[in-house]
Write a structure and sequence with these properties.
Elements: E1 3-4, H1 7-17, H2 20-27, H3 31-40, E2 42-43, H4 46-62
Antiparallel strand pairs: 1-2
Helix pairs in contact: 1-3, 2-3
GO molecular function: DNA binding
InterPro entries: Lambda_DNA-bd_dom_sf (IPR010982)
Protein name: Transcriptional regulator
Length: 64
Amino acid sequence: MSIKETPNDLHQLVHKLGGPSFVARELKISVSTLHGWMKQGRVPNMQKWVELKELDNRMQEVLK
């Protein structure tokens, strides 16, 4: 199962969180894998999707 968003939504989320290098490091994946996900507009791994959303929540808490 994969989670789909438009490529633009996923792209904006990654850049909002600090860019591809930071997000890839936090998710423990390669930058090229993350770029592939961004190009496709989907995260094919449900666990990584959950981790991405948790990272988004943590960053929002830090910025409060």
